[in-house]
Amino acid sequence: MQRKISEELYAEAKNYFPGGVSSPVRAFKSVKGAPLFIKKGNGSQIWDEDDNQFTDFCCSWGPLILGHNNDAIREVIVATVANGTSFGTPTRWENKLGKLILNNNRFIEKIRFVSSGTEAVMSAIRLARGVTGKDKILKFDGCYHGHVDSLLVNAGSGLVTFGVSSSAGIPEAFAKETLVAPLNDLDAVEATFKEHGNQIACVIIEPVPANNGLLLQHRSYLEGLRKLCTQYNVLLIFDEVISGFRVGFEGAAGYYDIQPDIITYGKIIGGGMPVGAYGANAEIMGNVAPDGGVYQAGTLSGNPVAMAAGFTAASQLLEEGFYANLEQTTQDFVAKIQSYCDNKGYEVHINTIGSIFWIAFSKDDIRRADQINPDSMEKFKILHAYLLDNGIYLGPSGYEVGFISSAHTTEELANAVDKICQGMDLVHQ
């Protein structure tokens, strides 16, 4: 495929933006070539500036569960923009989306809209600290929660360690307020609570860890976290920026039927527009300003264009059978690729939940970040390059997951299966 225009645009972009991009993974540093500059999307298809066409399994990193350029979402966006783009005031659309979500979600009683998943997590952490009067937080190695200072940390050298900053510009004192534990190890969590429980405000976890591979946890592990948090009076935060409205309308909380104390959302509830949210029961949310002393504000929070798009998207997700059908479609897609790889004897395992999948070049049951072999990313690099040349777009990193939307047709998925299987043959030559 010709990529001349994308390459020229990237060369120009490097004069304007760090690394030529507005978000690091877009720079294609983990794969081959210059990033593609996308100019159009429709259904499951995207087109780059060189007019190459791709079946898209990135879906804007997850939110486009209805595909690109959904007719109803586009029409309501255009109609809303005709009345203005932002007012910094309450709007009817904010009420409509809030009511729709709360009426169909057993796990939260009040919600606050923000402008991104990172902002939602930042606000949830502040809320947990404000409610408990405690400062420390416990996160898990392999879970990503946006670029919040206290969460942009890695594990140190012990089983459970104080955080070590994974970014320049974060004071060591901030990182030291964060404890980091391995996933899939309740004993480590309990030991941490016994030592630091009177200082820990909250535990935050992606109940479906999907930012560093798809590190699916057993239901019993998540239930164990819930019990430990209750026992030690620590709030449990589910970061559902990816899993929320993706594995079900009630997200992973509903999928596993586990009640967290606070939930963060993002991605899908904007219908493709920038949005995030956090919610909890009425008592906890009563601590948020102006009702309580935990301050959080945002000029663009509840923006009418994002709210209108989100309401229109969420309404479609509530159609009977939507999630069951999409999960079955995803399982069928994954099963065909897995069967091919198994028959060939390839060291490949594809994890999947809901409409999310992740290709791991290993036969191991990977549930922790330290079980991922960094060398396997070289195999993904070969696969990614082959698929790009053959009209299939995956996120440009082997640690990123793929998404299937309701817009992916049977024919498009069958073609993608063929291309991925051919790519596997190339990888394993």
List its traits.
globular, Aspartate Aminotransferase, domain 2, Aspartate Aminotransferase, domain 1, 2 domains
Question: In words, what does this structure look like?
Answer:
The chain is an alpha/beta fold and 429 residues long. It folds into two domains: 4-69 and 320-427, Aspartate Aminotransferase, domain 1, CATH 3.90.1150.10; 71-317, Aspartate Aminotransferase, domain 2 (3-Layer(aba) Sandwich). It has helices at 4-13, 71-81, 92-103, 117-132, 172-175, 186-196, 219-231, 251-256, 282-285, 304-317, 322-344, 377-389, 410-427, and strands spanning 38-42, 45-48, 53-56, 110-114, 136-141, 153-154, 161-162, 164-165, 178-182, 200-205, 235-240, 262-265, 276-280, 349-353, 356-360, 392-393, 402-403. The strands form four sheets. An eight-stranded mixed sheet has the order 4-13-12-11-10-5-9-7, with helices on both faces. The chain has a four-stranded mixed sheet with strand order 1-2-3-16. It has a three-stranded antiparallel sheet with strand order 14-15-17, covered by helices on one side. It is globular. It starts with a helix and ends with a helix.
